[in-house]
Design brief:
single chain; 338 residues; alpha/beta; 3-stranded mixed beta sheet; 11 helices; globular; binds uridine-5'-diphosphate-4-deoxy-4-fluoro-alpha-D-galactose
Amino acid sequence: MKILTTGGAGFIGSHTCVELLNAGHEVVVVDNFVNSQKEAVHRVEELTGKTVQLYEADVCDPDAMEQIFSEHTFDAVIHFAGLKAVGESVAQPMRYYRNNLDSALTLCETMARHGCKRIVFSSSATVYGVPDEVPLREDMFCKGCTNPYGWTKYMIEKILMGICDADPEWSVVLLRYFNPIGAHESGRIGENPNGIPNNLMPFITKVAAGQLDHLNIFGNDYNTPDGTGVRDYIHVVDLARGHVNACEYAQQHSGCEIINLGTGVGYSVLDIVHAFEKVNGIKVPYVIAPRRPGDIAECYSDPRKAEQLLGWKAEKNLDDMCRDSWRWQKNNPNGYQA
Ligand code: UFG
């Protein structure tokens, strides 16, 4: 298949490009590099020995999107592009709604004009809101998100469901990611957040590297086995493989499917710290800090639907995730900057 990836230079996008190319698909990337670097795409080419056609453009720009679609016939699109920092979305809601919703709509309008009706969307477990029970299943009622970022994911899901209802030729796969960590095992591509990381694993790797003094563990009084928050961490390469299967699924089916991509196993913050220290032989100093507003105690997936529909399940374990995250950090102390 020939696949357009929006945001293909980002963390999940770049790993997915590698898996798509390795599976024999052709890949075109559009990215505006607000939160990613061109070097990531060069490294995708280096890792796969294949070329990627790259457009530097904003998915919100209808003329730029029209140009790309007039130069190619895509079998499917994977829509990764979007602003994704939870705290920033609370401070800048208009920017988040404008950017994430405009880009999704512009993309879908351009696709419809060109008769490309297959899309895989980067959604998030955040759309489940505060869960009544875990594990989370795709058919559970979403009671509402806790921040504008989450609402943009929720709203884009609804937009795509509406498009499918109106035109049964569309094939939409809404992938709800749990917590992606790790990096390609080559250590050549990985997560490269701007500034001080918000998420747990990039923060841990910066502490381990001595770039940050210590980790703040946000609360140890949750109703969990050790009191710290529990999440379903998934290796980004497993997640990337899930997208390949989702594209192949979309080629054979029409309609809309919501699919969790997680391992089904929850680990606490302390589990992650201890596994990281053990597997990499390096200390991660931490202090217990107050709870972070908006955090929930536990979040992990029921991953069975992905196995049933996509024939996919996560294969890498927590040690792999910790080892690969550290290799990326160690080999690239300044991310993609030389
Ligand atoms: N945590 C810390 N210290 C830190 C950072 C995180 O203790 O410095 C804890 C959090 O309190 C939480 C766990 O580590 O218990 C994971 O936190 P992350 O910020 O890594 O991830 P979240 O589960 O909060 O959010 C992630 C993504 C969101 C997505 C959500 C879906 O960042 O984009 O998963 O559930 F919406």
